Sequence to fold (149 residues):
Amino acid sequence: MKIYKDVNGRESHTNLQGESGITYGNTDLFTPAEIDAMLADGITVFVPPLVPAVELTDEEKLQQIENAVQLHLDTTALAHGYSSIHTAVSYADEPTVAKFQTEGAALRAWRSSVWEACYTMLAEWRAGDRAEMTPAEVVAALPTFVMPE
Fold:
């Protein structure tokens, strides 16, 4: 198998899909001479374009983490029969049905513990005492919820 490398070291092989002699994809990765040489050899050029990574600002990263934590709170409440964490905690002060009051109070206390843990991790990151975490890593490090019996 003949291998061609572009100016960035990415490889193109002779057995690429496509019609021989036709150029597909992002030819900006190859010089015109490299493309001509490949086409002369009957090689189809197909290299996916490089997509530059977009660096998020710290505020955008924080917003993603907060959104992930809120979604985690809401999906946990939903798993226990409530439409959202906000609905669930509204039952904490409801004396009519003891079961709902107990569950609401437990979810409210857990919600507070979750946000405390989240904001502690974020403060440690800002201070340089903790490595940057993805939203999924933050959610995985949060306190778990156990519904009282």
Notes: The first strand starts at residue 3 and ends at 5.
